[in-house]
Amino acid sequence: MNARKLRVISAAVLCAIFFVGLFAGAVSPYPYAKQFRERPNATPSSLHLLGTDSLGRDLFARLIYGTRVSLLLAPAAALLATLLAGIFGGFAGLAGGWSEKLILAATDLSMALPLLFVLLALRALLPLNISPILSVTITFTMLGLLGWPSSLRVVWAATKNLRNSDFLLLARATGCSRWRVIVRHLLPNLRPVLFAQFWISIPVFVLTEATLSMLGLGVIEPLPSWGNLLRGLEDISAVSANPWRLTPLVLLILVVICFQFILPSQEEIA
Amino acid sequence: MPSPVKTLALSALLALALPVCAQTGGELHFCLHGEPKTFNPILVDDEASENVRYLTGGVLIRLNRQTQELEPALSTSWKISRDRRTITFHLRKGIHFSDGTAFSSEDVAYTMRLLMDPGTHSTTGDSFRSGEGTLQVQTPAPDAVAITFPAPVAGLERLFDQVAILSAHSPKKEMAVLGPFYVAEYKAGSYVLLQKNPNYWKRDAQGHPLPYIDSVRLDIQRNRDIELLRFRRGELQLINRLDAEQFERLQHENPAVTRNAGTGLDAEELWFNQSPAAPLPDYKKAWFATKEFRKAISMAINRADLCRIVYTGYAKPAYGPVSPSNHFWFNAALEDPKYDPQGALRLLAQAGFRLDNDTLKDRAGRPVEFTVVTNSGNAAREKIATMIQQDLSQVGIKVNVVTLDFPSLIERITHTFDYDACVLGLVNTDLDPNSQMNVWLSSSENHQWNPSQKSPATAWEVEIDKLMREQATAPTDKERKAKFDRVQQIAAEQQPFIYLINKDVLVAVSPNVVGAAPVVLEPWGFWNADTLRLGPAPELGVQK
User: Which of A55, A62, A221 to mutate to test the interface with B (most CBs of B within 10 A)?
Assistant: First the structure.
């Protein structure tokens, strides 16, 4: 199968997943929070396609509603983090001097801070009486605002390489303005790095949200997300007895693979 | 055809032979869930040290964990004065510590003085402190001792179950013990090895010396999953407390190893923040202070579902501060409130609330919405909160569930009071109501719904304060019970705590441990360690 075909299939799969997530209300057989208390931990059946969780909630309904939450908010957080990394990393790599040192010092400091504790402290400051939707938005915004340092380092290194490249020297020597150098020469060459950072960040943020859910910082009940659905995998023996519980993980892997396939390759960019 | 006489004789022979199958000797192997902080019984204040103290310490009076009655141990009898300040013990004669030192009344006097010395900082000693003044101990004879406290002590004799007697003369000090085992070896972070005390005073009905087992190896293992795995491999013979999911799994694999001791003393409960210092809007404070509101919430929660779903059936609905397993102190006269959402709506209507388009509104038309907080990482409590969320949605109440890390939660419920309602558990290790004094007195920090009050905020809290103080000094248990029954009645009427469930005590015991009879009181699975035997090679039938 050639790369083009793979890309089309991946795009189709992603579109289908996004579509189902966006129109979860129409696709889902039940509300995501409805507890069928007479059927907790049910196995897959015609009534419940993926069975039910320990509270009797339909796992298929929760999966597709969770898809909406995770596939809209994790990319948004990844975009925010990549944008911050791109702006500050690019500036540091291009400008050099004291501003580079300052930005890199701030990055190192941010990387040294234990993210989990920073988020814990921030959550403790937030009011309790907020809706689940607002809570999840705040969570992913915090992830985006705090998740840039490692991407920044990569972007900075790439920009620094480009700054010393012959073609940029030539562009500057031919009288290109700084803005033109950035827009026409630097950004197109940084694009693969930024794309890669963006795609990599999505599963990272989905999984970070899963960890945060365990600490009460992520998506709050009864709203589902891939993160809190993945918490069901903590109990290995329960998973081996109920392998359909792996569906959120399979979906996450599928989405990440599809994202990788639709990325333009280095050669194509060149 | 065998004659009836022959059959009877054969049966009798078999019955006699059964105990013989269970051999004496061998090593019982199970886990402590933390590092013991001390082996000094006076200084014990953690569960691991408490377990070691139970297995090694000799006490004057022992609470029989099965019958919940007090039994003579190192003392043959005791007498309490009418003013409940003095207790006089008659001690067993001819008893020796594990190192051979003779036991006498001087050892009791030494232990009690050390226990009550403020410089010792003994948590066990704190239970005896009921007033200012000094302790007096008289030893009129080597087998008699009279201890006089500065003020009356409620449930005095029961407190001696926690006092392991130290030797006044042994060079080994706290390592010389009177219990069934002594600490032979300890490797920090790894294990504690207890060996049979050759001088243990107790004998079985046939006069054989106890304990039957030669040694007990206590591995220090915090990870419950690893503990379960080792049990399934046959490396451990006992798991002292399992959660419902682990128990259910084990039950499916091998029902013979699982033992449900019954409803435990611990409870999970919900309460509303009634602190005047809470930064909540006045209308919310008014809701939470309304008795009908709290009772309606209680009626709208389906406790049976909580037990069945969250604890897979290994819990019982709780309606009061005392578990039905606490035979003496439980007030059986109280009615169990039924799950009744319609009744809850009627009660709410009496208090001025009305249902408008499936949304409950107060007199001023504000929708009733509040947040329940609980600690993150506790799956059972998170599920409880989520189920309460759905139950209350049926009476038009919107509940938000927020889980917080434990320090943040404690900060909110004890200092900032910035929360609406909370789901947490209360651990009860003692049967006596005195152990709940810190919860019921309005001046207490643990009076969770409105802590540290300078004077009781409500008339019913005035009455509870009075009753709790009176029961602590009442001369007889009957009078104490009458007063504490009334406290339970007020708690049921006012619902400051909405009790949800009492968890079952779930234990796993290998079939080769003969005589194990887990109970609802600590130390649950090995309370009768001195009479346990290890049988023939275990036919566990579990995964090897």
Answer: A221
**Chain A residues interacting with chain B (CB cutoff of 8 angstroms):** 33, 35, 37, 40, 54-56, 120, 123-124, 128-132, 135, 214-217, 220-222, 235, 237-238
Share of chain A above pLDDT 90, in %: 31
Q: Do A130 and B400 touch (CB under 8 A)?
A: yes
| pLDDT of B36 strictly over 70 | yes
Q: What is the mean pLDDT of residues B117-140?
A: 87
- pLDDT higher than 60, residue B76: yes
A265: confidence class by pLDDT, cuts 50, 70, 90: low
**The two structure tokens encoding residue B144:** 């008699």
Mean pLDDT over A42-55 rounds to: 92
CATH number at residue A130: 1.10.3720
Residues 6+ positions from B401 with CB-CB distance below 8 Å: A220, A221, A222, B371, B372, B374, B382, B385, B386, B389
Give the domain extent around A23. 3-269
Q: Are B393 and B355 in contact (CB under 8 A)?
A: no
Cβ-contact A4, A255 below 8 angstroms: no
Mutate to test the interface with A, among B288, B302, B383, B403 (most CBs of A within 10 A): B403
- Reply yes or no: is the peptide bond before residue B211 cis, omega within 30 of 0: yes
| Residue B6: per-residue pLDDT | 52
What are the Cα distances from residue B188, in Å, to A258, B37, B38, B160, B219?
51, 10, 11, 29, 10
Is the confidence at residue B106, as pLDDT, over 60?
A: yes
Domain count, chain A: 1
Q: Is B394's Cβ below 8 Å from some Cβ in A?
A: no
- The per-type count for chain B, helices as H runs and strands as E runs, is 16, 21
The residues in B 397-416 lying below 8 A from A, measured between CB atoms, are: 400-405, 408, 411
Chain A residues with CB inside 8 Å of B378's CB? none
Is residue B469 pLDDT above 50, yes or no? yes
| Helix/strand/coil for B510 | coil
SS3 (DSSP) at A247: helix
Q: Report the pLDDT value the prediction gives residue A267, as an integer from 0 to 100.
A: 62
B484-500 tens-digit pLDDT: 999 999 999 999 999 99
Distances (CA, A) of B393 to A39, B318, B383, B406: 20, 22, 15, 27
Q: Which helix (H) or strand (E) holds B370?
A: strand B369-375
* CB atoms A221 and B305 under 8 Å: no
A55·B386 Cβ contact <8 A: yes
Q: Dig out the tokens for A15 from the structure.
A: 């579109």
SS3 sequence of B4-44? HHHHHHHHHHHHHHHHHHCECCCEEEEEECCCCCCCCHHHC
**pLDDT tens profile A193-231:** 898 888 888 878 877 877 776 666 677 778 898 878 887
Measure the CA–CA gap between A153 and A86, rounded to whole angstroms. 10
Q: pLDDT value at position B8?
A: 47
Q: Which residues are CB-contacts of B249 (< 8 A; sequence separation ≥ 6)?
A: A237
**Does residue B540 carry a pLDDT above 50?**
no
Measured CA to CA, the distance from residue B421 to residue B448 in angstroms comes to 11
The ipTM, to two decimals, is 0.79
Q: Does B418 touch chain A (CB under 8 A)?
A: yes
Which of A180-194, A205-219, B13-27, B364-378 is predicted with the least confidence, judged by mean pLDDT? B13-27
Nearest to A86 by CA among A15, A144, A17, A24: A144
Chain B residues close to A33, C-beta within 8 Å: 389-390
Residue A222: Cβ within 10 Å count = 23
